[in-house]
Design brief:
Helices cover 35% and strands 24% of the residues. By secondary structure, it is of the alpha/beta class. The chain folds into 2 domains: 151 residues, HAD superfamily/HAD-like (Rossmann fold, 3-Layer(aba) Sandwich), CATH 3.40.50; 106 residues, Hypothetical Protein, Haloacid Dehalogenase-like Hydrolase, Chain: A, domain 2. Strands 8-7-6-9-11-10 form a 6-stranded mixed beta sheet, with helices on both faces. It has a 5-stranded parallel beta sheet with strand order 2-1-12-13-14. A hairpin with a 2-residue loop joins strand 10 and strand 11. Helix 2 runs parallel beside helix 11. The longest helix is centred in the middle third of the chain and has 14 residues.
């Protein structure tokens, strides 16, 4: 019996317009199985999905940087792993100094910040529900420290992506994780903010047996999550490399693959 399900969002639960279809939502809700979103997105971006799926179980934002649940319309923090204020300032200064043309933004638990509106920011805005606040780095970091959970870069040139990854790797910053989450995005988080660590926390905190837990994913950054559960389900739209980690292969994200997978593999036995 499956006692809990984890699911990625983009390319997994969400369709081409970034929504959960009514059919998919109904199948998830009617299963009655506790369901946790596991995403690099912000809690505010996840909120409409949490509401639509009527979720009250723990949710994982910022790739595990923030674990929370909703109680009576309020966000209750369970665990948080953020980038230290001085370190965030250092990273953003390095980006602006050595790669001034790159698109980047950064996030606290409620707000999305950028220093300029460009192609990357416009793409991010098109797939999310938040509006970025444009700030000046020096002014922003002269304020009282706050918890920043993620710095994200949009890099549209594959060679530049590899160059930037190598640049940060040479710095050997042990407290940060640099994760290429798509061909065009590089995400920087606390080293402890990883999908697998978020799942570990929930499994331990709620005393869940991994052999009775399932996860749905489609990307390389979902592999560590898929390896943490007894019933990994990979979307048909995933690459063959990612499919190799699946115990089951479900339909694509455009065919309500998550709901189909739940009904086919976990409810019809």
């Amino acid at each position: 019996m499956i006692t809990h399900i984890f699911s990625d969002l983009d390319g997994t639960l969400l369709n081409e317009t970034g929504d959960v279809t009514e059919t998919n939502a109904a199948m998830i809700i009617n299963s009655g199985i506790p369901f946790s979103l596991v995403s690099a997105r912000t809690p505010n971006d996840m909120a409409p999905i949490v509401e639509k799926l009527q979720l009250n179980s723990p949710q994982v934002a910022f790739n595990g940087g923030l674990i929370y649940r909703n109680e009576s319309g309020k966000r209750v923090i369970i665990s948080e792993e953020f980038i230290e204020w001085e370190m965030a300032q250092k990273i953003i200064t390095l980006i602006q100094t050595y790669y001034p043309s790159l698109s980047f933004s950064f996030y606290d638990d409620d707000n999305w910040y950028t220093c300029k509106i460009d192609e990357g920011i416009k793409r991010e805005e098109s797939i999310g529900s938040q509006i970025p606040q444009v700030v000046e780095r020096e002014v922003f970091f002269s304020q009282d420290p706050r918890k920043l959970f993620k710095i994200m870069l949009w890099i549209f040139d594959a060679e530049v992506m590899e160059e930037v990854k190598e640049f940060f790797a040479k710095l050997e910053i042990e407290e940060l994780a640099f994760t290429q989450s798509s061909p065009y995005t590089l995400e920087i988080t606390n080293i402890k903010a990883q999908k697998s660590k978020g799942i570990d926390y929930i499994l331990s905190h709620y005393d869940l047996d991994k052999e009775h837990v399932a996860a749905f994913g489609d990307g390389h950054n979902d592999i560590s999550m898929l390896e943490k559960v007894g019933h990994p389900v990979v979307m048909e739209n995933a690459s063959d490399e990612v499919k190799a980690y699946g115990r089951y292969i479900t339909k694509t994200n455009l065919e309500d693959g998550v709901g189909y997978g739940i009904e086919t593999y976990f409810l019809k036995k």
